[in-house]
Amino acid sequence: MHGLILVQFQKFIHRVGGPFAWQLVCRECGLPPKTYLPNQAYSDGETMALVMAASRVFMQAPGDFLEEFGKFLAPELLSFYSDLLDPQWTMFELLERVHQIFHSRVRQEVPGVLPPKLVLKRLGQHRALLTYSSPRNLCRLARGIVVGVGNLHQEYVALRETECTLRGDAQCVFDITLLTDRKKQQVSFARTDMFQIIEATPTDLSLLMLWLSGEGINPRIVYVNILQKMASTDGVVAKLHDQTVGVVWTCRVNPSFGLILAVVVDPEYRFSGIGKSLLEAGLAGLSSQLTGDATIGMDVPASFVPTALKYSFAPSQRIRHMKAFGVPRVLIPDTNVVSATSVPVESIADYDAQCFRMRRDHLIASVLEEVGRLSWVYVDGTAIRGVCVSGHSRNGIRILLLVADTDDIASAPLNRCLANFPSEAVFLDVPVHNSSAVTLAKEFGMVEVYQFNRLYKGVDPRFDYSRIYCVSLNGIL
Which CATH fold would you assign to the domain 194-310? Predict the structure, then answer.
């Protein structure tokens, strides 16, 4: 296997699962983590072991995982071999030259590598047959790459595999059709009744996470574990020929309130109209779980607002733990958030030393000891991962200190604090140089209030750390 593929595979795992996902994949397949080089060849057995391990870690079928990787891989490969490209090439012109130009370069740079054979046969201006031949049988990867190339060329690709070695055929053949805007509308109406709406599985949830990462959102691998542990979450998926093409995920927060967490459709079927069908299915399922005068919340991008209004949704800023740009923040369950009084002082001192260097290793402890403080600690096993300290002020509740290892961990104790003071104003003094802290405040519906002169505006070497999401200089120092 070409080392460049493994380099990009490691990059894809990191993007989808976060900084520790690659270690999890390597541990799953029994290989020590190592750095792959793009100019080296590696065994196919090692490559497939990593793919199978990743599919288990992300609870995704190997074929689906390879296809999503292919969509990610396409722009990376074209960028790497940009010197061989002509910007004027159409998608079909590019695919016609892959085997002759790109694979010839690969064989020169990395002797011993046997790239797959790709042959394109045109059937017209907007249709062609692509034949894929390789002893590795990675046709799902090839399918993803074709869709990824289409996305780069802003082409809607209708792809059908007429022959496949995995089904016993001698080769894999893809029937590719590029659709014009008018044909997109025709296809959307023709396909709507072909979808099957059924209950989701954990595999569908991991596919949802892959789609979100493809849209530039980086859902960490912990998201999958979070939603699985939350017994009040449910999912519905749309299937087309046993392939998942859309997911809606909902959450019953309490008997009278529920959330539409996400409605995501495979980019390949973005014009199918299945998103509305999924939303209706999610609303129906969630409504059946709620009682009395119930409310359902949904955070949507601006482009989806007209659709939301049609379903009687009204704009609201009351849902504090929702992101402002379309995808709700998945809160880490509050079962990990405990009162600071139940945590050993030694553990807090150790976390102090990690968060505040520069002779500030007793800052958290000193804040906790003050009279009238209400504090929460995020505990992962025996380790502290975050601390939130609040206190009363003349104008309401002030968060005096919020430190955490990640954005999602920071949101959990902060959400617990807000839940304890539902009718009072809450103030958060965030370091403006920490963009994550500013984003976190906005996600909880907070607005800037300069009149109190409490915003931390300068870069202070004592507090210039990514873990610090809030520090009230007037209330602490």
Answer: Aminopeptidase (3.40.630)
